Amino acid sequence: MSLCPPGWLKTPMGNSYAGQLRTTRFEEVLHNSIEASLRSNIVVPRPIFSQLYLEAEQPLAAHNSRAENDDEDEEDGSESNSPPILYQIKPPPEGCCTTDGFCQAGRDLRLSSLASDPLDVLPGFMLVGLKPPSLPDSLLVCAVDHRFLPDERGHNALLGFSGNCMGCGEKGFRYFTDFANHINLKLSTQPKKQKHLKYHLHRNNQGVLVKGAAICWRGHDGRIRQIGPRLLEGHVTSDEQSSNLLLLQPSHTPANYTASHTNGSPQIADTPHPLTNGHNAIPPIPQPAMNHSGPGRPSTTGTQTNVGPPKKRHKGWSPESASNVVSENTVKMPPSSSTLSSSTAHSSTTNGARLDAATPMSSSQRSSTTLSPSGLSVAVPDQLLRTCGLQPVIFKGHGPLPRLTGNVSEVLVSSLLQSCYLSSQTLPRVYQHYGPSPIQPLSTEMQILLTVYYLVQLGPDQVPLIEDLEQIFMRSWRESHLSEIRQNQQPQAPGSQGRHYGIETPPTLPGLPQHLSLPYQQPLTPSQLPWLAQLAASSCGVGVVVFGEHVGSLAQGLQLMFCKLLEGGFQNTNYVVVIVTASGQETQSCVVVTGKHQCRALAESMFSPSEGLREINHQLSSGETQELIQFCNSLGQDGDMDSLLDSATLDSNEPSPLSSSQESTDDKSVKKTHSPKDSHSPKERVLATKETCTEYSVEWREVRPIQLAVARKLLSHVCAIADSSTQNLDLVSFDRVNFLILVPPSEVTFQQTVLHLWSSGVLQELGSLDQACASQRDAERFVVKMDQSAQVQIDSLIQEAHSNSYTLYILIHDHAHWDISSASYCNSESGLGLVDQLLNSRRIRDAPNILILHVTSFPFALQTQFTRISPYNEIHWPSSFSNDVDLYHERTRYFGVSELLDSTRSGGSLPLMRYDSSFESMAASLEERFPKLHSAVIRTTVLIHHYCIALMAVSGRLSGSHNLHKHSSVETLGIVQSLLSAAQQCPTRHGHMVLLRIPSLALAAWAQQRLSRVRRQLGLEEKFEIILGNPGQPLNIGQSFVDQIKIWLKIQEADWVPRTYLELEALPCILILSGAEPLGESLPRSLKYCDLRVISCSYLQRTTLEQELGLAAYLLKAESRSPHNPGPGSDLLESDAEKLSSTDNEEEEAQDNGKNSTPSSNLPVQSSPDIGAKATPSTQNNISPKAPKSTKASTPSPSRAQTQLPAQSTSQAFLYPKPSFHHLSQYQSQTYAQAQQVPSQNHPVSQINFQSYFHQVSHPQLQPPLPPAQSRRHPSKSTSSGSLSPRASSPHLNCSWARGVSRPPSVLLPRSLYDIITANDGSGLPRCTSFLPHMSVAWVSSFRPLLSKMMTCTEQSLYYRQWTVPRPYHMDSSNRTEGRSDNFHPRRLLLSGPPQVGKTGAYLHFLGILSRMLIRLMEVDIYNEEEINLNAREDGVQYSPSNVLWPNPEIMKTLSFDYTVHDPKYDDISFVYCPGYKPVSDGNTVRQEDVCLRRRTTRIKLSKYAAFNTYHHCEHCHLYLGFNPRYQIYDSSLHVFTFTHLRLGEEIQLYFIIPKSKEHYFSFNQPGGQVEGMRLPLSTDRSPDSIKSPIFTPTTGRHEHGLFNLYHAMDGVSHLHILVVKEYEMAVYKKYWPNHILLVMPAIFNAAGIGAAHFLIKELSYHNLELERSRRLEGGAPAVDVWPFVILADDSCVMWNAVDLNVHTGPVEHAVSLKQVLQHMEACPDLSHYGLCGMRKWSSRVLTAPNQREPFSRGHLHDFLLLNVDRSQNVQYDQNRFTCHDVDFTLRLHSAGLLVCRFNNFSVMKKQIAIGGYRTFIIKTKMTDVPTSVGPSQYICAPDSKHLFLATPAQLLLEKYLQHTSHKLFPLSTKNYEHPVLSVDCYINLGPEVTVCFVSSRPHSVNICTTGLLFSGLLLCFADTFVTPSFLKNFTFLKGATLCVISEDRSSLRQTVSRLELEEEWRFRLSDEFQTANAKEDRPLFFLTGKHI
Known about the structure:
The protein is α/β, with parallel strands linked by helices.
């Protein structure tokens, strides 16, 4: 035992990194505690179990004091006491600059030179001043990654260095030594960043770079953080790095068999998670992990005393290893957050690099291991591995570990346990906010004692899992402080959002004695600890040894351990616990693992996945495996395997043994047609067969109902994003969909996705894509493998997205959990980090038309505290069943991981998931024999050996083959037998697939070569194919098998080859699937066996385990189940904590679906084809010839009546066939059934099957006792070859494949994984659900609760979002923005679902329905109606040429005015009499209320010139809609505008709401003062960028749906648009249209109709015209030049069209902008001659009408009007009108002699808007609380009568009454067009059966000739003074004609009758006077009727 002075540690390379002496000063409270314990009066300790878990609540201060004391002993954080060693400076490259202050590139680095220069500093880097010894007065400027610098308290600096040169710009210096050389830092000692990085640099107010605060390199937190990283370098690897591996398992860090697994407790970490991984003790600060390009070199892990980082970081070092930080101030996370995690393949692997694979340890490496206080070192004996056959693993516990010297490469040191201790002693913050509290962490002594108890209860082959131990600590702590915890938890509940996952008390944990759950009363003292620990260890014999009572230091204990280890004293000891409780010192401890199995597991767990594969490759390439292979080839007395193969008889005349006695009668009948010896090709053999297989079908191309449901859920989430107020996705602006699917770099996955894409029809559906896909190969451009070539395609998509803003691009990231590495931690060669680099780039993030959809079966790694995906954007796969109701009526049912787990608990039959004890025994014995070989090499060699032996035995081609069975396992024999015999059952040779999962590519290639050689020598090339599944290569299938597949799939292409595993359906084959992890490859339904016996047991993350088990996920035929039994499949999310509890859909809550299910004879949910009943000689003859025979007694063929198993308490019940032995005696059946009662976990297959025949070697402790009858059974000779005929679940099925599709595959696992997976955690869930979800994340705190069985998928997501954080090398680790609670990407979705469930089909269908929806959104319902009341002109004269641009006033005057109304919306109004017109009456009366319901519409796609409502938000409209950076939204002002109406003789007061951005359209008396009017242009102004006419849009009730966004319609030109709204709607219109000018009508018009709005617009416009003319006159301009036109536009005008006259094709209509229409009309030379202009309403049939030849016409205009307010000043809109106001106005305008012109070459499209509008009026009673249906007859009543008054304007009641009852009021006018009703000065709708003849009483008015026309009635509505008795005498009336006089009140009514002398020709009665049904205060209207005398 070598001793070194304190603080000394020398290494060959001159680096010293010594640990410092620690003081023994304790906090006073700790002294008091020890003193009280020592002076205790209790001489004899209390009973051991009450004393064991005494309340050892060591104050937190004591823990902190250790770190503080450490701080006092160090001077410079990294200084050591070792004598200085001369540092040899590396000579600079030839020709480089060596001047002080300059870098080797010759660039100046001095602060004085760079102070004013602009410097480019990368994000995350800081400018630091470096003090060169050669320039004492200068500082050199460099950029250093801030993570490698301490904070202001001297804490949280990562080990190592990362810096850039600010002179030449060179980046990426990873070692401070290299950087010092580059900047010519000429030193005599080893460069240290702590010595030379002195000051922070910053810029002052003048922008000059100046020296800032000194860098603080001291701090105990930094020291604690290094605990994980600093392992004894020679034998350690960073534990932290690995996240959750087994204690031994834990780290993924490559430990080169070395080290440091802080995380790696064998299984501890993964119990819940492989590594303690989340708990790593170190708090919450995730430390960045470095990317390593090569095999990692070991890094060291130090204890708390060592503060400084290592002198030099090797390539394998990862900052993650320094992640153990206790400082809670550094991060906003619970302080106990553990940042230790398994490193991913590309990250921190070097920490765990094996020492023996690395170069000799340098002193710098070893120096990081802190020394014990005494400074003693421990010499590791030479030849330790050879002597003992193991590499001991030392787990650091409490206190510093002594320095190891000597043969350190054969010892592993891990800080995983130490991290667990630290994590468990760091209380959650919630318990630290209350000041002094009785809640204290577990004491050191209690932790050590609990650790001993945990180790004692472990089985001899069990590997400890850190997370188990951690949960024990948590339980003990919770029980001791239960009341305080509950008190502190109470205030949390109300504030929590959703379900709060607080700290709960879990049920009993493994390894924790029940008595420990009781609160203990007194603390456990150090003096009590050693003998209590020894007493606890005594219960397991020598399995756990405790050194404590006579050990004075850890060094002494370790030295003693090594001595006994060499002496063979620990042959049966798995763990040695060293405890040091010296007086006056802190308790120290460590645990040494000495069990061979445990040591191997721990060593291999220290490899990262990539490092492990690299080690395997090295062993294969170096020839280290040859001895193993030779050993396996030797068969002892049975000879050598190669010799037997060479002697194999391959005589072609010899009948195949496969078709002899092994086969059933049916098999023989089939073989007569095609014997295996046939030399014909598969095609010839199939064609020659008389029988054909009618069962074969391929259904994987079909879209299932549940996939459609998921696609709709995706669509609804996309719509929710679009509907949100964030405006992150404007769906209505997109007119098509494009997409790109990103898949992992697997050729099979790529081709599989292409196949699904092509088969789905999505490409044909998205016909808007530029290129049509003509073949499947063309579909490949939509799928991208995420390798280096992906950059080009994604860049192309981004560029395309930026140039096509109207296309929505969907980036689908399939298998999204595969590459979540940060691009900054990955090199380009690794192929990782591409997702981060591409999908998280700013270009994609900021593109408003790119949406990302992540698709994965394992979403956990994307559900962290820093996730980019909102929880509201997660879509989870729903359950197919709810309360036993089939929701989707599918033909298939999903069978996944949860169902596999349930099969292990059934207990009544052979479980689908099991382990092979024979294989495990042989592998274990060989692992002991070859301790240096990787277990994967050994297990793979054994497995392939078993397969080769099985092939030789089953083929029957070797003499004495019956002796070969004992050299293989029963499972392997059954698999091979089933594989070879399956094709014989089917006429077309359908078989099944056997999957061998071998992660190592090199091992997989070797396995294929070995199996292929054996197959060839046995002559079985035509029986089955052996396929190597290499992710990087396409499939390679033999041509004969390709021909078979082409026949089955009916493929005619000559050059077709299968490219996916799905296309191997029914092909008998062995698929060797390689690769570190599955990459999303889907397997065919013919998969029967999933052999996972050689997968790694080292990486126990939930994702890793579930994706391996997910290979066996299966879709069963639903027909094979009872309709009432949901069966073995469950469509719940596979990764859900409780697959059968609930989902996110409230209506789809899944219950225990199988509780009440009935037995089904068609559902053997076991691997029935592979295992059958063994027939005895005495019973063979009794078996039906149809019954297949089998050799396996464990799984007999099912009987017709199968017995239902009891439902499981926590999962769905499954139906498994009970053993039914028709060939065994009743006694044998009973004894077998008794044997079957043994739980499946203790019931390896090999002991159940062929027990007496194959003489299998298995672990005696695992072997259940066999019944005597079973042990006496012997197989007959006919079964000696071990053949297995597949059992038929239906008698009529001969095809093995057809029987297999209704059964899930069998899964074979390693024993260690099987035990972990089938165990339950404290909450009753499968243990794997509580593992760390992914190696790239870490637990936030050890104090987290366990997952709950009742959690839905959404709640599970919230759980991971609360309790996990990404590690530094996770791509989301940088996704944290200060000051924000979240940083979600608004256009990012996550679809999660079980493996193989059909997610690809779901998202492909989503693309299709999304495209259809976008097309639907881009379409609107346009009124498409032919004009009504058309009569072809009889003159046939063409007045204007068709191609004339503008109307000629003179020609227009010659055109006759068309009085007839042609607008289809008025097909229910009265005809306007026109001489010469003959109406065609259909005799149907139409109510106006029904018009909207029956009007014809057409779906039209919006053009780019459309008007939009408030739902449209594109980037072009932001400024137009008010998103102007110059103005605040809603920044507008209210202005009053008053003018006097001459006709009314009263003032009209209007309100303008004018946004600041629109004030330039108005004139004010002073800036910000009163509005004087709108500015109007001159008639002579010409500008292509503006519209001269103000646009007024009256609107009501359409603040959301009105089409007021005219930006696109106007093509972006300047225009004045004013919305005319009612006063009560002012606020809501202002809210939705903040940048629009609002004209608010007076309150008296709140109940008015459209007539009032047009009246006010016209009067305002005329008044403003006069004001503008006055202003112009004052300015000297001619008044007549002011532009007099305004536009009156309906709020539903959506698009405008123009007609192009084509000589060849005739008139063609196309969409044009409103700008083009208005500028054309405004440019009309004689426009001022017209009083009113407009255009026709669009109809798809207008251009074919014969009377549409004229480009211009005179007639009624509607909807979109260009009004000349100057010429029409004397013609007013009727402000009281509600209906037909435009017809009335046009008639009066024409009668006034003004020209009305309709531009027929323009048309306006009107959108159907069912909401709001001026035609929406509700007629209701004033008693609103009494629902009453009011008919038209109730609209009027007799004056002064008691009548039900209505709360409706009187004018509206009158108009509605006349419309619906005029056929009674004017009986002579009904359907009598020749005798119309004369209406004077107004047009009122009297219903479609009555014709109205309009005449004007104004002088010089233009009226039709009424000479000789007899009128059937007279209507006088508010007759003015122009109506005189003499005027009325010009008209002739029929006898009995009806008179109707309407006035405002009864007085004026009588005055009108008297003034017009109506009583002379009309007879009146008192009963003929009426009023509208209004109350007096509502000013009813009165009218009087009479008859003509």
